[in-house]
Amino acid sequence: MAPTSITGLQIPTADGGRISLPDPNHKVHLQFRRFAGCPICNLHLRSFVRRHSELRAASVREVVFFHSPADELLPHVADLPFDAVADPDRHYYRQFGVESSPRALLDPRAWRSIVVGMSLALTGRFRVPEFRQPTGRLGLPADFLIDTDGRVIAEKYGCHADDQWSVDELLRYARTAGGPVS
Questions:
Q1: What is the rounded CA–CA span in Å between residue 129 and residue 89?
Q2: pTM to 2 decimals?
Q3: Alpha helix (H) ranges present in 8-166?
Q4: Cα(86)–Cα(69) distance, rounded to whole angstroms?
Q5: Residues 6 or more apart in contact with residue 16 via CB below 8 angstroms
Q6: pLDDT digits over 68-117, tens only?
Q7: ∠ CA 48-51-57 to the nearest 5 degrees?
Q8: Residue 132 CB neighbour total at 10 angstroms
Q9: CA Rg, the chain, in Å?
Q10: Are 85 and 64 in contact (CB under 8 A)?
């Protein structure tokens, strides 16, 4: 289970920066993805990159976690307009109750995104992930929206590798802050 409120959390970013939660000026969307270069994650994150200006206009700050080391992660996230966090020991994954499971890849609802994401990686549109993934390939995604006062105002724990909020869902939660937690 995720905490219901966040206070005084300092999170180091993969590029050496630091994120403070709560952020008094923005709602913060924490995205827990899988490993660096994950084809499904790349496909999903590109939708957030394309609509980044809408997210900023809604005063939403994106922070993306990966269970990969920073040196492996940085080449995959260098062009993202938002912060990335390397968490190879899964410290924050545990803190927020984000799990791994074989159903991450076995669920047929994830297969289309696996094929599309791998096709884009193999054609050079995405950077191909490392073959060996010491932190595993079975991570499940999760999303949390944190209000400026630190309250977790919405959350989603994915049930397969491609089960996460869309940009539209996130924007809806950001507009109705304080509404139901999903």
A1: 19
A2: 0.82
A3: 39-50, 52-57, 70-77, 91-95, 103-106, 111-122
A4: 5
A5: none
A6: 999 988 988 988 999 999 999 999 999 999 986 666 666 766 667 666 66
A7: 115
A8: 5
A9: 15
A10: yes
Q: Are 93 and 65 in contact (CB under 8 A)?
A: yes
Sign of the CA dihedral running 77, 83, 86, 89: negative
What digits encode the pLDDT tens for the residues 112-170? 766 666 676 667 666 655 656 566 556 789 999 999 999 999 999 988 778 899 999 99
* Local structure of 73: helix, strand or coil: helix
Map 74-111 to HEC letters. HHHHCCCCCEEEECCCCHHHHHCCCCECCHHHHCHHHH
Determine if residue 145 is left, alpha or beta; phi over 0 gives left, psi from -120 to 50 gives alpha, anything else beta.
Answer: beta
Number of neighbouring beta carbons within 10 Å of residue 42? 23
